[in-house]
Amino acid sequence: MTEVAAVLAELHRLADPAYRADMEPRYGIVAPTALGVRMADLKPLAKKLGRDHDLALALWDTGVFDARMLAALVGDPARLTSGQMDLWRGDFDNWAICDTLCFDLFDRSPHAFAKIDQWAGLNDEFGRRAAFALLASVALHAKKLPDAPFVERLPLIEGAAGDGRNFVKKGVNWALRAIGRRSPALNLAATELAERLAASKEASARWIGRDARKALLDPKLRSKLGL
Asked: What pTM does this model have?
């Protein structure tokens, strides 16, 4: 049995039909190829397998949702190419696969900011969401980066705030809130943008602005940032 076949067999063993049945109605995950493996079971399996980029590539090629989620956990960000990130992003068809790849793999790639800039201009819902899920993920994880790369991308957030599609709107909001958690200066800049969006004539921008403003003005966060 090949390694990929063995991993697929293990995923079938871990699958929970009840969870699979709940994925769309309860979590909004539309994934026809899903087996129904919970993330709580994928993570220990990924830890056991370790970083293995060749395995990640093979798992992605199966087209099985759970195998692709596992690929995000075992892929090697140092071996990601720009083309591979585009190829995988082109397969995103639900928020869970989009966010998991961005949060657990893409954000560690040296190509991350270039992809944020590129994908922010896409028209498909999950492609554009990927730009902002990736921006949020980098903001949350890359603690040592200076403020400048995030300030420079606030216009991307403002430019996409009028996109009323549900998963884009929520991704843009996530990115704005994540940036505003990084430092006092970024909190002030993000709050200023949230105020402008809250006063927008566009419904999606108003929602983003109001929701982000509430999070960014949270007394506990501002106290932590020294504001």
From this structure: 0.96
The first and second tokens of residue 5, run together, are: 């076949």
Give the chain's domains with CATH numbers: 1-75 (no CATH), 96-227 (1.25.10.10)
* DSSP reduced 3-state for 60: helix
pLDDT for the residue 222? 95
Spatial separation of the C-alpha atoms in residues 164 and 144, rounded to whole Å: 33
Cα distances (Å, whole numbers) of residue 151 to 26, 123, 136, 188: 36, 23, 13, 11
Q: Does 1 score more than 70 pLDDT?
A: no
Distance set, CA 88 to CA 59, 100, 147, 194, 212 (Å): 12, 12, 29, 31, 29
For 180-210, the DSSP string reads TTS-HHHHHHHHHHHHHHHT-SSHHHHHHHH
